[in-house]
Amino acid sequence: MKLPLGLLLEIWIVHVYTRTPDDNCNWQNEYCCNQQTLIARPRNVQDIQSVVTQYNYVEPNGVGHSWNDKQFCANLSPSNDSLKSVNIALAAMEDKEIRVDEKSMTVTVGAWVKIRYLLDYLASYGTNGGYSLPTFPWFIDQTVGGAVATGTHGSSIEYGSLSSEDVLLELELILANGTRSSLSSMKHPFLMKAARVSVGRLGIITSLKFRILPQKIYQRTTESISHAQLATDLLKAQREYLLTSKVAPSFQEGTQYLWSIPSQEVLRITIRERDPPAFSAAWKSDASNYDSEPSLKNTEEIVSNWNPPRPNRSFWAVGPLPRWLVRLFSSAVQNVLRNGPLQSGENFATRDAIVSQSKELINSRVFFGGFSFQDAVFDQYEVGIPFATAGSCLTGLIDLLEEDEQRYAFRTPALIRIVRREDALLSISSNSHVVYINLEDYVSFNQRSRERNQGFLAAIHYLRNSDRCMGSRIHWGKAGWPEEGCWDGSREYPESWCDFGCAVHELDPNGKFSSSSTIWNWEGANLHRCCTANGFKHGDNACRCQVLNRTTRQPVCGSAA
């Protein structure tokens, strides 16, 4: 059976064509909030302030690129219907301002602007070749505010994630009382550490200031290696890290791996800076400032009910298939990437050199019998593994996936990236450089009746529970979160969970931004007594950061599976 190459590429490169949301569901219409939760479509910052002051529970949403519905849905009161909940659809904002300051080498941008738009704007700004963010993620059609709030990242040893202290310089929040607060490391060092990765828990991000760099020219190299070589690379890097606390030079800035698990093929992608050519002039911004004082108004015009959308259809080509076809499919995807959009030897400006969903990867739209592959439903998981154990962990995963049941549970390549340690309290890399592995489950959703993809789940269970992966953490905006009551922040983030609780205690003591997740729990830790202006009193014997299950009032039932 011969499958068109364009068809194969389209299956892997799933797009999100964003617009103002009509509902409180994620972009695949797979995960939705309770219909009691209203939806607000603000036009300006004052609209957001009005909603925040007039509703009991509020949760900000960007374009809905999330698989963690508990986090993107506003909290609900089980006993009092008069306590109204609302999700704020920030994509409805009319002001898409971007302000570039070439003297300070910074850009200030509204939180609802998509990363793609910001990157394209910077690339064409000024007369000296344009600018870029120091680092950016694979998926660039999410809002910058949502990306920062969840610690979204690319592959960067030098700069870390979009939330790191070397990339994100300032941000503005609307707090629970409706006022606006500007935070920076200089003026508010503790609160800024908390706000860098806040998952919407501290307030609604409205504005962010990032460092920018002159756009550079890179040569991209894509090399095919075996999965055994991948294991060797990672084990060698782990040993060097344990000896020197530094990442091996072989992991250059921007290095990424695409691992086709069924065919056991790996693409290693690196970039190397080249001499820049001459650039032509580009267009400039005409952005304007806005007032900082709230002007409260009636919210009836912007808040409404919503109807659940029709669920997305399943598609056979990414569901259960004969093993020979899975191998063929996986090999063909790697060949398309290696010889097409990720081909070696090309010179690119920063905007397209760093591997992401560039324009070339998303412009085509292939249909099969009237069905677009962008509609195929899947869950995306991502686990961050401390560098000190990453080589051992991923070597064990490679061994596990030698077994057929696990090996043939995957349809798209695993994406492996490296991110440096940073100071955000809830960053996955808050205590170590990490190796991220991104995995996607199509099989569970794309069959006649939905069934658990046992082979895929075995891989996730291993990454989260094996001693070889000690200290692994799951991405805030993706799938893989355990059942309610079975996640303990004080175990997952032992050095910073109660510090973050102190920031919540200061900025949102009544839980307006608590979301519908139960993880925002500090019961058992006396925040009132143990919080200071610099965080939790970890050295005080009377201040223990131990979380109790709100149902059983016992220590929470362990780490996520």
Number of helices: 16
Strand content is: 15-25%
Secondary-structure content class: alpha+beta
Gross morphology is globular
Task: Let me know the largest β-sheet.
Answer: 8 strands, antiparallel
Mean pLDDT across residues: 82
In the sheet with the most strands, the strands line up as: 15-11-13-12-19-20-18-21
Distance between the termini: 38 Å
Low-confidence stretches: 1-19, 278-296, 359-373, 556-561
- The radius of gyration is 23 Å
What is the strand tally? Answer: 23
Helix content: 10-25%
Would you give an account of this structure?
The chain has 561 residues and is an alpha+beta fold. The protein contains 16 helices and 23 strands. The chain has helices spanning 5-12, 45-54, 69-72, 115-123, 144-149, 189-196, 227-244, 323-339, 350-353, 359-362, 387-400, 404-407, 454-465, 489-492, 497-507, 527-530, and strands at 38-40, 57-61, 85-89, 98-101, 106-110, 131-132, 168-174, 180-184, 204-211, 213-214, 217-226, 256-260, 265-274, 303-304, 347-349, 367-368, 371-372, 379-386, 414-419, 434-441, 473-474, 531-532, 535-536. The strands form six sheets. Strands 15-11-13-12-19-20-18-21 form an eight-stranded antiparallel β-sheet. A five-stranded antiparallel β-sheet has the order 4-5-9-7-8. Strand 22 and strand 23 form a beta hairpin. The protein is globular, with a radius of gyration of 23 Å. Mean pLDDT is 82; it is low at 1-19, 278-296, 359-373 and 556-561.
